[in-house]
Write a structure and sequence with these properties.
Keywords: Heme, Iron, Metal-binding, Monooxygenase, Oxidoreductase
CATH superfamily: Cytochrome P450
Number of helices: 15
Number of domains: 1
InterPro entries: Cyt_P450 (IPR001128), Cyt_P450_B (IPR002397), Cyt_P450_CS (IPR017972), Cyt_P450_sf (IPR036396)
Protein name: Cytochrome P450
Number of strands: 11
Pfam families: p450
Strand order of the largest sheet: 1-2-3-9-6-4
Helix content: 40-55%
Order of helices and strands: EHEEHEHHHEHHHHHHHHEEEEHHEE
Family: Belongs to the cytochrome P450 family.
Radius of gyration: 22 Å
Structural class: alpha+beta
CATH architecture: Orthogonal Bundle
CATH class: Mainly Alpha
Largest sheet: 6 strands, mixed
Strand content: 5-15%
């Protein structure tokens, strides 16, 4: 009997990225990258890229306009994975700015908008009432984090809450990481776009979609098609829901893994707003790298990145960098610089919904801690199933009891 041996990989051969889909532990490769903060990797799509993992170099990439997000969708550009949305939508806030909609969008996602914070508190409380009515154990992701995020974005967009399930059903495919184009992604996109176009014509539509619809009568916006306007609604719902629900789920999971921190917040709820940034720093929900394409040759650390090459910012590498955060593996809700994390990106593409995302999580945690002070996992942590091949790390189910 013979044993087949695999050929040895050259020492400088690209390593496969991403490293792990698990959200309960930092991939062991992160520590290995401390000695090589700009590392050659091979993506899911089979292309080569530079993976940047130190805090200082990650900030450099995000803030340097010679690294472009828009050009990651250009024909022939190296990719992390196949696109699941039209290429022109990749830099969506850039598109919004280009058509003059940025002001309306920023107004809509401002958590200080009249009545929004009160609505979030009331809806979170209603969801907890539903958890009590069902009785433990419950899946906190499907029964709390997801509907809380979906309802918030329906309210912002001004579309019926009853329609949230049909839009949310697209997200499991829309945020897949696949080497090849996903047929279902285009079907979902076309269906959701048709829905948002209908909302533009619906007199019952309120919120941001109503403001956008009103622009069709303005000659300054005559160049905008209904499809361009509808894109704002589709992308805001998708990106907003998946980001806020994934972080909230992971924030609760982190707290349940650190009962001493949960107890500290239970004893003093005024610490919750400050704790959210530390939970964002240690959160591992970002399952890929933030992509940029070099527009010219750029020196990055000891590496010369060539024009046209793909660069991936490893947020978890930056957020756990001991050069930026003392004792980075410690969850310290009093950490003085926790708000310098890169979980919302940076530079010109810093997430415009940062304040909303923080307030969304803050109110949810306040509600859960106050109403369910003894919340804990209902299954061994080893039994949690982590989603694979997805842009966000998250548990498929997070069963809890109280």
């Amino acid at each position: 009997m013979t044993v087949e041996t695999l050929p040895l990989q050259p020492a400088d051969a690209p390593v496969d990225f991403p490293f792990s889909w698990r959200g309960d532990q930092l991939p062991h490769e992160i520590e290995m990258l401390r000695k090589e903060p700009v590392k050659r990797v091979r993506t899911i799509a089979g292309d080569e890229a530079w993976l940047v993992s130190s805090y200082s170099l990650c900030r450099q990439v995000l803030e340097d306009r010679r690294f472009s997000l828009k050009d990651t969708s250009a024909p022939g550009a190296p990719r992390q994975y196949a696109l699941t949305i039209p290429p022109e939508v990749v830099n969506n806030m850039g598109n919004i700015t280009g058509v003059g909609l940025r002001k309306a969008v920023l107004k809509a996602i401002n958590p200080k908008s009249e009545g929004l914070e009160e609505w979030m508190r009331a809806y979170a409380a209603d969801l907890v009432d539903g958890l009590f009515a069902q009785g433990a154990p419950v899946d906190l992701r499907s029964r709390f984090a997801n509907p809380y995020s979906e309802a918030l974005h329906c309210r912002i967009l001004g579309i019926p809450l009853a329609d949230a399930p049909r839009l949310a059903a697209s997200l499991d495919i829309a945020f897949m990481n696949s080497a090849c184009p996903v047929t279902g992604a285009k079907l979902n996109w076309d269906r959701d776009m048709a829905y948002m176009v209908e909302r533009l014509d619906d007199p019952a539509t309120t919120g941001l979609m109503a403001e956008i619809a009103a622009l069709r009568g303005n000659p300054d916006y005559a160049h905008l098609t209904d499809e361009m306007l509808a894109t704002v609604g589709v992308t805001m719902f998708g990106a907003g829901v998946i980001s806020t629900s994934a972080f909230l789920t992971m924030a609760v999971f982190s707290l349940l893994q650190h009962p001493e921190v949960w107890a500290e917040l239970r004893d003093d709820s005024t610490k919750i707003p400050g704790a959210v940034d530390e939970l964002l720093r240690v959160n591992l929900s970002i399952g890929d790298g933030l992509p940029r394409v070099a527009l010219e040759d750029v020196k990055l650390g000891d590496v010369e990145v060539r024009k046209g090459e793909l660069v991936l910012v490893l947020v978890e590498g930056a957020n756990f960098d001991p050069e930026a955060f003392d004792d980075p593996h410690l969850v310290d809700i009093a950490r003085p610089n926790s708000d310098t994390h890169l979980s919302f990106g940076g530079g010109q593409h810093y997430c415009p919904a940062t304040a909303l995302g923080k307030k969304h999580a803050e109110i949810a945690l306040e509600t859960l801690i106050a109403r369910m002070p003894d919340l804990r996992l209902a299954v061994p942590v080893e039994q949690i199933v982590w989603r694979t091949g997805f842009m966000k790390r998250m548990p498929e189910r997070l069963h809890v009891m109280w």
